Every structure is written in structure tokens, then in C-alpha cells.
Amino acid sequence: MGLTQEVLANYVGEKESVIKRIELGKLKPTIDLARKLEQVLKVKLLEKLEAGTNVEYKQGKVELLLGDVVVIKERRKSQGGSPT
After folding, report:
1. Which residues of the chain register pLDDT less than 50?
2. Please, which residues have CB within 8 angstroms of residue 78's CB and are 6 or more apart in sequence?
3. Domains in the chain: ranges and CATH
4. What is the pLDDT of residue 6?
5. Which of 25, 23, 20, 32 is nearest to 61 (CA)?
6. CA distance 61 to 59
7. Do residues 13 and 36 make contact, with C-beta atoms less than 8 angstroms apart?
8. C-alpha angle with apex 61: 58 to 65, nearest 5 degrees?
9. Of 44, 39, 46, nearest to 8 (Cα)?
């Protein structure tokens, strides 16, 4: 659809970092988020299971990583060796 991760995150009400981690396969979306993604992207992500199927589901939680809470600024050294 040509959406950026930032725009998709806004459409589904999540942080851009969550969308990035889902795309990288590092995070599985919750059922609620998967439903939102289905609506926005017009794709099928979830399937109904037949009765009697043994499935264990844990409520997905978004974990924060250091990169989610810290902004790292790169120091550049000038030719004189002092940071600018």
C-alpha cells in the first residue's frame, strides 16, 4: 500500500517501534492489533479455529527496549578532537 511504518503505526494507534519489531519478526502482534492491521492493510492475518482445537494463547505485551526510551546522539569529533 506504500505506507511508511510511521503512518501505519498512526492508523492502528501504536508506536512506530512496535510496527518495526513486528516487521522484523521480533514481536507477535496481539489479537486486537492483528485485527486493526487486517482492517488497515486489507489482508487476512487471523483464522478461526474449529472447536476442540488445543491452543494456548498468552496475552501479548509490548516490551520496551532501551532504544524505545533513550535517544542516542552521535558525537562528532572535529579535527581538533573536541566534540561539537
Report:
1. 84
2. 84
3. 1-46+62-84 (1.10.260)
4. 94
5. 32
6. 6
7. yes
8. 140
9. 39
